[in-house]
Amino acid sequence: MYADVILPIPFDAFTYSIPRDMETVVKKGSRVVVPFGKKKIYTGVVLRVHEDAPADVLVKDIHEVLDAVPTVSDRQIAFWQWMADYYLCTVGDVYNAAMPAGMKATEKKETSRRRKKVATVQAEGVKNTLNAAQQRAFEQINDSFREKDITLFHGVTSSGKTEVYIHLIDKYIQEGKQVLYLLPEIALTTQITERLRNVFGDKLGVYHSKFADGVRVEIYSRLLSDKPYGLILGARSSVFLPFRNLGLVIVDEEHETSYKQQDPAPRYHARSAAIMLARQYGAKTLLGTATPSLETFHHAQNGRYGYVPLMQRYNDMQLPDIELVDIKRLRHQKRMNGAFSPVLVDAIKEALSRHEQVILFQNRRGYSPFIECRTCGWVPRCEHCDVSLTYHKGTGMLTCHYCGHTYALPPRCPNCEEADFSTVGIGTERVEDQIKELFPEASTLRLDLDTARTRAAYERIINDFASHESDILIGTQMVSKGLDFDNVSVVGVLDADTMLNQPDFRSYERTFHVLSQVAGRAGRKKHKGRVVLQTRSVDSDIITQVVGNDYLSMFQAQMEERRIFRYPPFFRLIYVYLRHKDNRVLDSLSQTMASMLREVFGDRILGPDSPPVGRVQSLFIRKIVIKIENGASVSKVRSVLCAVKQQMLHLPSSNGLNIHYDVDPV
Ligand code: ADP
Ligand code: ZN
Ligand code: ZN
To answer: What's the pLDDT tens digit per position in 348-361?
Structure first.
């Protein structure tokens, strides 16, 4: 007897022979310990048990079986295979991402013995606190699920979507079903965990990749036990958990592009994966957001998904007014105070005088995006990547935001030897500096990758701001995401243009999402909020649509562009990335690959091109774009792409070449 075994390495499966005494215990889904290569030992998962001896290789024995009963269910294995297939990676990649390291260890460990005492929280249960509009939405969602498996819950910011989710979760748990509640960022679980813990007590499990491995193993094991969780709140990796009778998946903030895993493989979109997971269990999927992704809204319009709107704020608070400020003109008239227009300064002043709080959004961290020699124009760049370095005043260093490398600020320009640099552009650190000058009496907090490196640091900032220990919160996109503060009356967007000008077909849609979301942080509880939106592009359609809170116009205009230029949701995109340390070798290899692809796909192939940042961590990069009609045979495309990649990697000149596919890039 033989077993095909999935190992935690980027390959599909390897065949091992099953020793006689293990024949009755080795089953599909069993974890087994196997030798690999000359010295390695891995824990793998049995994909298939069969009797076909491989002809040409020496087959090694399985060393040990770790489970009396298979740990990995048929459903999970089918899910892994779907993911590897769809996202063009190996099932080994998926296995590696799917299980905590402790489950892949080569020795049996008693993981549950050291269970730490968790303070028990008295679950209060659900109280029927929904207002009339929420109650209607709750009922409409249930109705919609009678006909459709997937429903879009389109609720404006602060409409009270979370409260509706809580009622739905309760309903499914009462029916003996499990619920998965997905959030795009680990950071967001902080505010929601407490709310859910109060209602569901120890029925709730929280799971994400930033937890210590032991904690993840414990959550995983409890799901396999006879007292599994009823509700899992988690970031994208929780789609891999061993559910038993999943009834509902909630994908909150479904428009968020951070649902897509960028690196390493599997480069999956957790929204698509969640839909697939739910389908396997016959469960329902609820996609919740104030600003649906074009893909999702498209399906709600064509009837594939159900649609439930909730267009008023809880407590009937009005949505904030958005005031547009033309910073190009103000700069020209020399009326800007650093990054601040007179209108924004007044708005902040007024909020502070009423003891209300302010959120300021600037989509760049650090002090200034780059520095420049005033004499000769020299700009310091990263040695390993094709980008200029960001100046961080706090550390006094120049930092590469692509590879993380830091450099000392040179005392003199290496080009002309003058010692006169200017800091160009404005990051969050500099905004904070300017606020301290303008409002010395106000206390500030900064929320960006530099201040919130750890989950604990993030939580401290959020909690301090929520308890009004600070007046002004300055941050990057991190401040826009689903946060719920009672006392914020003013939101300032310092510069909407950096987002708008990104060379990407999604940049307009993304700008709309981010600006609408950040505006939605204002005036949630007490009285109507005020948003000051500073931009150089006052006439841009996207800005007009944000100001008018006009999702539909944004949707229609963007869909028209996507149709004309053959982008999703009308076409399916696959990016091919090639990396190599030698630019000329890469040039010729990427040309070769593009011609191979063109032979099959013709003008559906674009490139190769160098992406805007053409070298990262000393590797040059080329990108080939594949645009495929919806409805084309996906499996055929897949087999061609896999074959072409193999052919490329077998070329004599391909030594050191790295190729990966990114399916449905965001
Ligand atoms: P959304 O997720 O739609 O932006 P939230 O669910 O965070 O909105 O709700 C916004 C605020 O209104 C929260 O502070 C929440 O506690 C409050 N809220 C919403 N619904 C209710 C309700 N039925 N009873 C009491 N408070 C509610
Ligand atoms: Zn110089
Ligand atoms: Zn770098």
So the answer is: 999 999 999 999 99
Ligand nearest to the CA of residue 371, numbered in listed order = 2
Q: Which ligand is nearest to the CA of 380?
A: 2
| Residues counted in the chain | 666
Closest ligand to C-alpha of residue 466 is: 1
Q: How far is ligand 2, taken at its centre, from the CA of residue 495, in Å?
A: 29
What DSSP letter does each residue of 479-534 carry, written as one string? GGSS---SSEEEEEES-SHHHHT-SSTTHHHHHHHHHHHHHTTSSSSSS--EEEEE
Q: Which atom of ligand 1 is nearest to the CA of 315?
A: 12
Task: State which ligand 1 atom lies nearest to the alpha carbon of 155.
Answer: 3
Q: Domain spans of the chain?
A: 2-103, 132-313, 317-365+429-559, 369-424, 571-663
Task: Please name the fold of domain 2-103.
Answer: GIY-YIG endonuclease (3.40.1440)
Ligand 1 pocket check: which of 314, 480, 513, 521 to mutate, most ligand atoms within 8 Å of Cβ?
Answer: 314
Cα–Cα nearest to 532, from 543, 524, 432, 499: 543
CATH number of 571-663: 3.30.70.600
248 forms bridges with which residues in the sheet? 179, 284
pLDDT of residue 113: 43
Identical fold, 2-103 and 317-365+429-559: no
Three-state DSSP class for 447? Answer: strand
For 58-91, the pLDDT digits (tens) are: 899 999 999 989 999 999 999 999 999 999 999 9
pLDDT in tens, 167-194: 999 999 999 999 999 999 877 787 899 8
384 alpha carbon – ligand 3 mean position (Å): 5
Residue with tokens 């193999």: 646
The pLDDT tens digits of the residues spanning 410-450 come to 999 999 999 999 999 999 999 999 999 999 999 999 999 99
Could you tell me where the beta strands, DSSP code E, fall in 543-657? 571-580, 605-609, 615-616, 619-629
Q: Within 6 Å (CB) of ligand 1, which residues are found?
A: 129-131, 134, 155, 157-163, 314, 484, 524
Answer yes or no: is pLDDT of 399 > 60. yes
- Structural class in CATH, domain 317-365+429-559: alpha beta
